[in-house]
Design a protein that fits this description.
Strand content: 15-25%
Oligomer: single chain
Number of strands: 9
Order of helices and strands: HEHEHEHEEHEHEEE
Radius of gyration: 19 Å
Low-confidence stretches: 169-191
Structural class: alpha/beta
Distance between the termini: 48 Å
């Protein structure tokens, strides 16, 4: 990899659609990462830069720039764009207490959803909703979702669950969530 990066200013692109935080919040952290990587590789100072983009559209634009050397993206983004962007996985995050795989769980009122067929007409709202292939093929792969199930992105999973649970929404909802480090919040299924 060193030969790939030496000789030009290259950019590490961190892109995490659906996750909280703005670019200005993460930028100091990715800058520090680039500085540490440059020093560890003994490359000339400022030969490696980093940028964080929390949106799918802007992240895609940044990844198509010629100076983009490496992409740091969540698995749903990889699933959706690996072929288009010719992405090859080089590493996986190993989160303490969780491991290398984020666990996704369909959470539902016990009488509302009894199997995949009972999701007919539902919409799954998820932080990974921008990547329906990921939701169907990985997050909920054990469930053959009906073809009319819609999958949509949201960053407000807990708010949607709360609205439905308290009856403030005309929608009925069940949840599809990710459990990571004891926190639950990734998706909602609603009709």
């Amino acid at each position: 990899m060193s030969a790939l990066l030496v000789g030009a200013i290259t950019t590490l692109v961190f892109c995490a659609p659906g996750y909280p935080g703005a670019a200005q919040d993460a930028q100091p952290l990715v800058d520090a990462f680039a500085t540490a990587a440059t020093a560890a590789a003994r490359w000339p100072a400022a030969s490696l830069t980093a940028v964080y983009d929390p949106t799918e559209e802007s992240g895609l634009t940044r990844l198509t720039n010629p100076d983009a050397a490496l992409a740091f993206v969540p698995f749903p983004f990889f699933v959706k764009y690996a072929a288009t962007l010719r992405l090859t996985p080089l590493a996986q995050a190993d989160v303490t207490g969780v491991g290398v795989q984020q666990r996704w769980t369909l959470v539902a009122k016990s009488t509302r959803v009894t199997g995949p067929g009972s999701l007919t007409g539902y919409t799954i709202l998820s932080t990974a909703g921008y990547a329906p292939t990921f939701v169907r093929g990985f997050a909920l792969s054990a469930w053959a979702l009906p073809t009319d199930v819609k999958i949509s992105p949201t960053m407000q999973v807990l708010s949607a669950l709360h609205r439905v649970a308290t009856g403030r929404s005309a929608e009925r909802a069940t949840g599809c969530s990710s459990v990571a480090n004891g926190r639950v919040a990734r998706a909602v299924v609603s009709v």
